[in-house]
Design a protein that fits this description.
Helix content is 33%, strand content 24%. By secondary structure, the chain is of the alpha+beta class. The protein starts with 7 loop residues before the first strand and ends in a 6-residue tail after the last helix.
Amino acid sequence: MSDTYSYLLTHFIFSTKNRTPSIPDAMRPRLHEYAGGILRGHECALHAIGGVEDHMHLLVRRHPTRAEAEVMRLVKANTSKWIHETFPEHAAFEWQRGYAAFSVSKSGEAEVVKLDTGADAPV
């Protein structure tokens, strides 16, 4: 095979600092869109996104050159900066330091999407 093919699905879960409920319903759709743009800009694809006021879930197809730690650094740093600039009333917003990352098989993708978003198919 002369070309490289990969399908690296990772389910990321990360929370706000001290699980503070600092992602209000009104902010969430814009935050999700912004996170998707960050991922696309770094050769990754967002397959699903979800969350509540104190944490987010991402199902990401990673480019083979993007490690989990790099993806999380990019998403968390850039979304935090965007929140501070776009929503000045959330100047104290912070993500918690750690995260969880789980590999997901292609056959398990639909089930993770259903858990994260309540949807029946990838977004």
